[in-house]
Amino acid sequence: MERTNLSMSSLKNLLDNNRQWASERIAQQSDFFKRLANIQKPAYLWIGCSDSRVPANEIVALDPGELFVHRNVANVVVHTDLNCLSVIQYAVEVLTVKHIMVVGHYGCGGIRSALLNNRLGLIDNWLRHIQDINQKYRSIVQAAGDINQQVDRLCELNVIEQTLNVCETTVVQDAWARNQPLQVHGWIYGLNDGLIRDLKITMDSADDMPGIYKRAVEDLHISL
Ligand code: CO
Questions:
Q1: Domain spans of the chain?
Q2: What is the C-alpha separation between 96 and 91, in angstroms, rounded?
Q3: Ligand 1 centroid from CA 121, angstroms
Q4: Any idea which architecture 41-222 has in CATH?
C-alpha cells in the first residue's frame, strides 16, 4: 500500500508561525515567557465546544496564563466524565478560579446532529446527552421555528443544562459550602457576529439554583 504523502510543509508553516509568535511576544515584553512559566493563576475556567471556530482565548482577548480551558464536542458536562470533573476540581481547588463559564455556540454541529438524529459513529453516544435535553424540552425547541432556529434554541438549552451540571458537581457544591467565591455562568457565542450572549444563569451559591435555572429557561421564549 502506498503511503499518502501528507504535506510536511503545512506543519512546517505552523512551526514557523510559532517561532514568529514567540519572538513577537518577547519583543513586546522581554520577560513574557519567563513570567508565565513560573506561575499559572487564571481567574477563569472556560468549558466550551471543540469547534475550531470558537477559539476560547481569542474571543475574550485573554493572554496565555489567563484562561483555564476544557473543550469537548457540544460543551457537555457529564457527572461521570473523569476528564471534565478533574479539570473542574483542579481549577476550583488548586487554581482557585473565580469564574467558570460554560460557553456554547449557535449553529453547533454536535447539537444539530443530535437534533436530526444523524448517525456519525461513536460520537452518537456522547451526543445522546443532547438528545435527552431535546426530549426534556421538546415543546420549547419545536416552538423556536425552522430547523436552524430549533438547533440554536437547543444550543441555548444545552448551555443552561450544562451550567446546572457544573453547579451540581461535588467540587462546586463543596466550594460553596466553605464559602469560596465562585461564580458559574452560561454563555453562548454567535459564529455570525463574534459576540457572546449571557444566558443569565449565573449562580454563586447553592441557594435558589432551581429558581435561577427555571427563569433562564423561561427567558429563552422571548429572546431569540
Ligand atoms: Co459546537
A1: 11-39, 41-222
A2: 6
A3: 17
A4: 3-Layer(aba) Sandwich (3.40)
Q: Please list, residue by residue across 18-40, b when 16 or more beta carbons sit within 10 angstroms of its beta carbon and e when fewer do.
A: eeeeeeeeeeeeeebeeeeeeee
Q: How far is the CA of 200 from the centre of ligand 1 (A)?
A: 20
Active site residues: 49, 51, 53, 105, 108
Q: Give residue 134 CA to ligand 1 midpoint distance, Å.
A: 16
Q: pLDDT 10s per residue in the chain (224 long)?
A: 556 666 556 799 999 999 999 999 999 999 999 988 888 899 999 999 999 999 999 999 999 999 999 999 999 999 999 999 999 999 999 999 999 999 999 999 999 999 999 999 999 999 999 999 999 999 999 999 999 999 999 999 999 999 999 999 999 999 999 999 999 999 999 999 999 999 999 999 999 899 999 999 998 876 55
